[in-house]
From TrEMBL:
GO terms for molecular function: phosphoric diester hydrolase activity. Residues 86-113 form a coiled coil. It comes from Aromatoleum tolulyticum. This is HD-GYP domain, c-di-GMP phosphodiesterase class II (Or its inactivated variant). InterPro entries: DUF3391, HD/PDEase_dom, HD_GYP_dom.
Length: 415
């Protein structure tokens, strides 16, 4: 980018301070559009005489060059612009630290949930009542966390392993189903039934050989074996005492399609229990984002688009629309281009404020463990477009999403 004298700057000129390093200036971002004279005064107080600027991203032309015989204006040190902005940046750094700690806490909670889910699956056949008690506790915690709250916040979880396994898929489908259930306004009892059914929906897959589960091009007999996981699932939960019918129906019907083309009973339309219709959408979304072969993974926005545009006949149209509204145009895990020319990944969204998510910024000068988190509600920054990971350099993708998987943690919030 070309350089320009600080004396020619005015609001609307887009500048870059990347050469200084993020810790060596008081601004939130390395690249940004000047919005007020205070920012320009801070540059002067730092002793900076020239900065890089981007004509294409500027909304105003620089001031004309000052004539050689015109003296430079005397600096106005009374404004204390630099000191004030440094204080503001320290406060922002503290907020980023708190946000990072919050994300780490949620990742620990997610790992604890995964351990608990794994124990449910392992103990189901030998100790069904213990498994049922553990599953009810796991679901109950999440439902209580969501009910009675004004809104919910959806967090992307950076779990340590690329391999998700049954427990991680079950947790995702449970969380996604309950998100949609909250948007739909389900009762507490319905939410508990939905969460338990979603957690156990694929329990029968433990009876299916991994080579069949992972094979995207199954033969006829292999497909029949795969589809038998629904029946195996119903058999697996038979030892759970007084398991509610709606829970059993989620397990039995999560592969039924609204147009009658699903399995095992080719149910159609309203004949498919509503909770099973919810879980079916969540299950499909997670399978698109987290297939066995991660090279086939869809970006979140692309997964939503595929369900909404090309697979809508399979699902309850009203529920699909609510699901899209719940996750929004930039679901967690979405790579985005920003108005300052940067690239980031959405790590947290609030359905009440979908256009202003929390974004992790890609900056090769900052270690990934210290990556900048920007809440777009607080920054003069906006998302310009969702990006396909395939369109980005590999190092950018690995910086923002080193595991390749998308896992979710959801909790309630007071807005």
């Amino acid at each position: 980018m070309p350089q320009i004298s600080v004396d020619r700057l005015r609001p609307g000129v887009f500048i870059s301070l990347a050469s200084l390093g993020w810790m060596d200036h008081p601004f939130l971002l390395n690249r940004f559009c000047l919005s007020n004279e205070k920012q320009i005064q801070a540059l002067r107080e730092m002793g900076i005489t020239k900065v890089e600027w981007d004509p294409a991203r500027s909304t105003a032309e620089p001031l004309p060059p000052r004539a050689a015989d015109v003296p430079a204006p005397e600096p106005d040190f009374g404004t204390a612009a630099l000191s004030g902005m440094q204080d503001e940046k320290r406060a922002r750094i503290e907020r980023v630290r708190e946000q990072r700690e919050g994300l780490a806490r949620r990742e620990r909670l997610f790992e604890q949930q995964a351990i608990a889910a794994g124990e449910v699956f392992r103990s189901l056949l030998s100790r069904p009542q213990d498994a049922q008690r553990q599953a009810n506790a796991l679901v109950g915690t999440l439902v209580e966390n969501l009910l009675g709250k004004d809104s919910m916040v959806i967090h992307l979880v950076n779990q340590k392993s690329r391999e998700g396994g049954l427990a991680f898929h079950a947790l995702n489908v449970m969380a996604l189903s309950l998100m949609l259930g909250k948007t739909l306004g389900l009762s507490e009892e319905e939410m508990r039934h939905l969460g338990l059914g979603a957690l156990l929906h694929d329990i029968g897959k433990q009876e299916i050989p991994p080579r069949i589960l992972r094979n995207a091009k199954r033969t006829g007999p292999e497909e029949d074996f795969y589809r038998a996981h629904v029946g195996y699932g119903i058999k697996a939960v038979s030892g759970m005492r007084d398991l509610p019918v709606p829970v059993r129906n989620v397990i039995a019907c999560h592969h039924e399609f609204f147009d009658g083309s699903g399995f095992p009973n080719r149910l159609a339309g309203e004949k498919i229990p509503r909770l099973a219709r919810i879980a079916a959408i969540a299950n499909r979304y997670d399978n698109l984002c987290n297939p066995f072969d991660l090279r086939e993974a869809k970006a979140p926005a692309d997964a939503l688009r595929q369900i909404f545009r090309t697979e809508s006949k399979h699902y309850d149209e009203q529920l699909v629309q609510l699901f899209v509204r719940t996750l929004g145009v930039f679901p967690p895990g979405t790579f985005v281009s920003l108005s300052n020319g940067g690239v980031g990944m959405v790590v947290e969204t609030n359905p009440a404020n979908l256009l202003h998510p929390l974004v992790m910024l890609h900056d090769p000068d900052i270690p990934r463990s210290e990556a900048m988190l920007v809440d777009l509600r607080d920054a003069d920054l906006k998302v310009e477009a969702a990006l396909s990971p395939a369109s980005l350099p590999l190092e950018t993708v690995e910086y923002l999403a080193p595991r390749g998987r998308l896992d979710y943690f959801v909790d309630g919030s007071k807005t």
